[in-house]
Amino acid sequence: MSSQAVGSPSIGSKATGKEIYEQKDIESTHNRSSSSLRRASQKQLCLIVRYKWLRLLLCNLSEVILGTKLSLLFPLVPLAIVADRLRLGNVWVFIISLLGLAPLAERLGFVTEQIAFYTGPTVGGLLNATCGNATEMLIAVFALYHGKNNVVKYSLLGSVLSNLLLVLGTSLFCGGMTNMKKEQRFDKVVSGINSSLLMMASLCLMLPLALQRSMAYSDAAVSTLKLSRVSSIIMLVAYAAYLFFQLRTHRQLFEEGQETEGEEDKEEPSIGFISSIVWLCALTVVISLLSQYIVETIEDVAESWGISVNFISIILLPIVGNAAEHAGAVIFALKNKLDISLAVAMGSATQIAMFVIPFIIVLAWIMGKPMDLDFHILETVTLFATVLITAYMLQDGTSNYMKGLVLLLCYFVIASCFFLLQTPLTKGHNHHQEVVNTPILDKRVVTETIPIPTKHSY
Asked: For residue 438, what is the DSSP state?
């Protein structure tokens, strides 16, 4: 077999004359985490097919569909469409769609990596910055379109919390338990840069909250919305500067911890450039469809299960939707490659906080929807505390299982909090009420409802 992937020259003729970059130079940590879940495809079976177009099609299907250990979940994608068309129930549509997103998100990372082989490290890095959290972004866009602003906020917040506490905590814990006899070390400079950006994101979320509680009710909403839009633009500028810092001026900082690990693992493109573009578009369309199913059914599922939409959006969606990426980060930690695990968890959290959230605010501005950065008191405090704890854990550049255990326990406490929180989402924040329990003589509890002014409502 030649050094060019099977079918690549004829599928993407423009790419045949390009230099194939070394894997360690173009492969992002997001894609490296997904690569741990890939398996070798059976190209030999494709080569025995007589017709060229059929051979190319089978090779592409083998690489994209069967080239992952999550391929068993692919039948759930058409099953979700059938369940929606036959109206089998919103609960089933939600469950099947959520599970079907896992292999699609992993394959999207694979296709992005294939495109990077032909475009080079800079374009590949920018493409990955856009598609790295495409699932969360599409769910947020559809929720925004349907006017479910709180689902947008909670799902994005949940992704940040999941990456910083669940993924990073599991990685540090498993890595520490596996490498009990030796101290695990990582590049604290890179983690410090991500921590500073996350602290900036926390500040941009706290200021609209404080401003709204500091002004008269008549002026608070407008001022908060204006501040949120200005802050979002500044956050996008900061993230663009971070990409320039990472991909251009200080690229060596983000490669030093991975060069020795990946020098022997040099890969070649598996599919052609045009095929990669086609698969990227196709996967994006399918993810969009399943994301729409999830957004449309999430409230019915919450009512059916007797839990809040807060818990589903903040806890369940990030865990299942990013299962492939999360598993990859843990696998690298078990192999004592903490730099990759941290880059996956911290990088994904930074991308959502500094790119996806402000992008959604700007998109809502363009659509004429009043979306702001006021994530409410409990959510904002939770985010700030999470960023603070994570930054403190990573400040010395060393890791052990105890640090991971603390992060995991913090995540369980937060999950319990949102499980107990019952907040109506679609009826508006103008009707929030506080429940006060008043004991009486026969020890029964009488529930008294006291309305709270909107200015001070949660």
From this structure: E
